[in-house]
Amino acid sequence: GLADRLRPGAATTLAALRALTGHAPTLLTGDNPRAAARLAAEVGITDVRAGLLPEDKVSAVRAQEAAGRRVLVVGDGVNDAPALAAAHTGIAMGRAGSDLALETADAVVVRDELATVPAVLRLSRAARRLVVQNLVVAAVFLSGLVVWDLAGDLPLPLGVLGHEGSTVLVGLNGLRLLRETAWRRAAGPA
Predict the structure, then answer these.
(1) 1 within a domain of the structure (yes/no)
(2) What is the tens place of the pLDDT at every residue in 112-155?
(3) Residue 107: helix, strand or coil by DSSP?
(4) Which residues contact 2 (CB under 8 A, 6 or more apart)?
(5) Do 42 and 109 have their domain in common?
(6) Do 113 and 131 lie in a common domain?
(7) DSSP output for 32-95
(8) Is residue 21 in a domain?
(9) d(CA 68, CA 85)
(10) For the chain, what percentages of helix, strand and coil (3-state, to nearest 5) are there?
């Protein structure tokens, strides 16, 4: 209750998250208010809410969502689990995380390194872009095939080739996230 230690890379991680989201982070903790304020000051967090119960954390998350924000919660304890569940996205820190937090979160960072949280955010954004690209590619191919068939005479082998070709393109496009460069880019600076 008197003092707590920052995790390695906390300041860098918060700066990266601030740059990625465009919003200042909030510290929601059940810890001692003085200790929480001291830690927050070390990493540049100005919005500190300490001495919170789990339901207070959930209320804070819901208030942010009611204001129109998507909320990302990072936590590792049993007391964080309700907030992780209430958030738009919950990330549990794996090694030190409680079983309840790990089961409740949307994503789990297995290594207990805060620096991986911005990388997870970058990778999820890249995955979302790929999904949208794949939907567009599939829609264009299938729409073209339907129009060709309705306007003229689409031979069955060309229809099958077009459909399966679009499936192959979508699959190959999705595999781009597995390349080493995608992971290095996600782990790098914003």
Answers:
(1) no
(2) 788 888 988 888 898 999 999 999 999 999 999 999 999 988 89
(3) strand
(4) 32, 35
(5) yes
(6) no
(7) -HHHHHHHHHHHT--EEE-S--HHHHHHHHHHHHHTT---EEEE-SGGGHHHHHHSSEEEEETT
(8) yes
(9) 18
(10) 60, 10, 30
Residue 187 has pLDDT above 60, yes or no: yes
CA distance 86 to 10: 23
List strands edge to edge, sheet with 72-75.
Answer: 72-75, 89-93, 107-109
Cα–Cα distance, 155 to 184 (Å, whole number) = 45
The two tokens of residue 56 are 């207070």
Cβ atoms of 61 and 49 within 8 Å: the answer is no
| Residue numbers of the domain that contains 96 | 10-117
State the Rg of the chain over Cα: 22
| Token pair for 175 | 């595999």
Cα 90 to Cα 102: distance, rounded to the nearest angstrom? 10
Model-wide pTM > 0.85:
no
Residues in the chain, overall count: 190
- State the amino acid at position 112 in one-letter form: D
Same domain, 71 and 144: no
AA letter at 99: D
Query: Same domain for 16 and 95?
Result: yes
